[in-house]
Amino acid sequence: MSASHKQEHPPRHPHEDEHEHRHGNGNGNGNGRAGWLRRPHPVLSRTVAGLGGGYLLASAGALLVTALSAGGGKPGGDAMLAGALVGLALYALAIVWAFATGSAARAWGGMLLATALLGLPGLLLLALPGGAA
């Protein structure tokens, strides 16, 4: 090969090999992009926590507010509207919080804990004699 046909490669960054080792090179040998299927993906986990866990949290909050409002003497329609509005606000906050927290596990834990703290009192209020009416 003559000197004019030689290809010159740009200098490599000193940590480039380390990056390929940790993140894979995408060649499909299990170390690349397909490797994320074998372990939980934090963004996917946070998305499911925000959407699914947020839905459960919103439902629990709506249940509690509806039960408290109906027990306080409000007409049924007003109590349900108040519960729905609180549920919508909780849903939006849950989605934001799932991505703002430090880890996916903390997002799941907080979502489930908050759902239990709001849902159990609402269920207890409905289970009382006379319900929330």
Number of strands: 0
Largest sheet: none
Helix fraction bin:
55-70%
Distance between the termini: 90 Å
Alpha-beta content class: mainly alpha
Order of helices and strands: HHHH
Cα-based radius of gyration, to the nearest Å:
26 Å
Instruction: Enumerate the spans where pLDDT stays under 50 for 5 or more consecutive residues.
Output: 25-30
- SS element count, helices: 4
Shape, per Cα inertia axes? elongated
Question: Approximately what portion of the residues adopt beta-strand conformation?
Answer: under 5%
List key phrases describing it.
133 residues; mainly alpha; elongated; Iron uptake protein; transmembrane; membrane
Description:
Residues 1-23 have a biased composition (Basic and acidic residues). The protein is mostly helical. It has a domain at 41-127. 65% of the residues lie in helices and 0% in strands. It is built from 4 helices and no strands. It has helices spanning 16-23, 42-71, 76-100, 104-127. The longest helix has 30 residues, at 42-71. The protein is elongated, with a radius of gyration of 26 Å. Mean pLDDT is 80; it is low at 25-30.
How is the topology of this model organized?
Layout: H1 16-23, H2 42-71, H3 76-100, H4 104-127
Describe this structure in a few short sentences.
By secondary structure, the chain is mainly alpha-helical.
